[in-house]
Amino acid sequence: MKKFMNEAGSILTESLDGFAMAHADILTLGGGHKFVRRRTLRPGKVALVSGGGAGHEPLHAGFVGHGMLDAACPGQVFTSPTPDQVLEAVADVDTGAGALLIIKNYEGDVMNFEMAAEMASGAIAKVITNDDVAVENSTWTTGRRGVAGTLVVEKVVGAAAEAGMALDGLKALGDAVNGATRSMGVALTSCTVPAAGRPTFDIGADEMEFGVGIHGEPGRRRDTLKSADAVAEEICAAIAGDFGDVRGRDALLFVNGFGGTPAMELYLIYGAARRLFEARGVKVVRALVGSYVTSLDMAGCSITLSLLDGAALELWDAPVHTAGLRWGL
Amino acid sequence: MKKFMNEAGSILTESLDGFAMAHADILTLGGGHKFVRRRTLRPGKVALVSGGGAGHEPLHAGFVGHGMLDAACPGQVFTSPTPDQVLEAVADVDTGAGALLIIKNYEGDVMNFEMAAEMASGAIAKVITNDDVAVENSTWTTGRRGVAGTLVVEKVVGAAAEAGMALDGLKALGDAVNGATRSMGVALTSCTVPAAGRPTFDIGADEMEFGVGIHGEPGRRRDTLKSADAVAEEICAAIAGDFGDVRGRDALLFVNGFGGTPAMELYLIYGAARRLFEARGVKVVRALVGSYVTSLDMAGCSITLSLLDGAALELWDAPVHTAGLRWGL
Lengths: 329, 329
What we know:
The structure is a homodimer of 329-residue chains.
Chain A: H1 11-22, E1 27-30, E2 35-38, E3 47-54, E4 71-77, H2 83-93, E5 99-104, H3 107-119, E6 124-129, H4 149-162, H5 167-179, E7 181-187, E8 207-210, E9 221-224, H6 228-243, E10 250-257, H7 263-279, E11 283-290, E12 300-306, H8 310-317, E13 320-321, E14 326-327
């Protein structure tokens, strides 16, 4: 295992320490290393709280800040945060208008966030993201997995919260954006969890995993290495097929790297995916390309199509100032 | 070789096509794929033109836009752009106030940019970056290599050009920022050039290369895998030692990923480097952490310390809107 680390047991806290030092203008650590929270809260705004296992950076801590989350709870690598972490975060950032929990659909995350929701004293609503069309159930998931589309939910709902939308409206908006968003990924290599010290799965030098999960969960099938165009075609066909009818729809096209894939390859995939969606009648009106929802050092990428309408597009465009996503500020 | 590509011969042009589609609000391609240029030029502003071999994305094309470059010329992977490319780019974006060429110190780049400068019809000045303290000469370099510090030069000089500074002033500022900037990198794995199809250098499962270049050039020495703290200490000591006296100086601390290293590890290194520089009396007042000057899919990182004074810090903070770096807009 080749990583910049001191000990596997302290990689998360040491990384969070560096993260908090680098972005002290935006955020602070809360409860030791239990959560990352905005430096300044705005009373009366609904609090947005997310989190999940570490290893997907910048998701979620990198999306704490103006226009996105108020707090994020990082679990150990690929491990759900505890109910205690979520409860403390909610108590810290809920200024009286309630809290919306944004949860990726993994059994541990859902269970622990729900336990926290039951114990919280203020008003709570939940949005569970499940944008991954690759498989219906998975290693740690009943139903579809929540993957890169979670970023889109956090951005759009975050902008609406900033604009003063109440808890019920944000819950409905989050569910709607999740419902309008589909993703699928492909791995060229496995990730390596620091505490395990070896690759999560074996994959041959001429193989790829179609539909891989962001923790290295199996996808639809193992196949021999395909061209970028063939990879993009399979993913775009799966996403468009799952939507049913995409003709004439405005969309954000988001190509996400898993951590070990450089920008040059992501842009090449973006070009291929864009041509393929446009050939299906999609109007690609917004783009995002980069490593935002990662799987440690995995080489691979996912493609996300989000059918954002006019109002949601305005929320996507609204100013955001976080470590991982920033514009207009 | 596992990459998202169709053919090695078309990876650059296909990637540029995707890049231009994703960032059509900021930039366009010029002369086919000869250069990337700002969509809108501002007459009377000095034109900033950079470039170099592809494979270091987002450098340089990702820094074209308001507050940074006017044009960037991408060569084939790890290959200098031709004089013809640079000449066409300069002719296209020089609106009459002259052009400043920002060149990383590699023999091919320096030669080709200088040939273009000699042929150009307008006023031309050059800044050659050479921030890498690892070695004095290298595979393709007489003198020190230009590496991640080039981003700092492009950002600071870009802001000054935007504010109306004339060509002579920009040249002096660029040289001063380069002179106040030192970097050193370390590789955990080799990169793989698409046309070669195999790793550029062999490195054992328990080895790292101290002082590696961004094309995989040899560094100071090969060593066994060290802890993150030990890696940071060696690099910070080399940088601080090269500066001589850093006590009491304001600085930007920039931890740069080489393409295959995830954010979690970069932030851990940032925390370690920050503590080490602060222990030497540096006042770290700005941070940048991410994969900005990459080496294809290499796992590794570099640390850059830039002793920016008050005026240069204001230029660093000035609004920028590019594909790779964005704030305030």
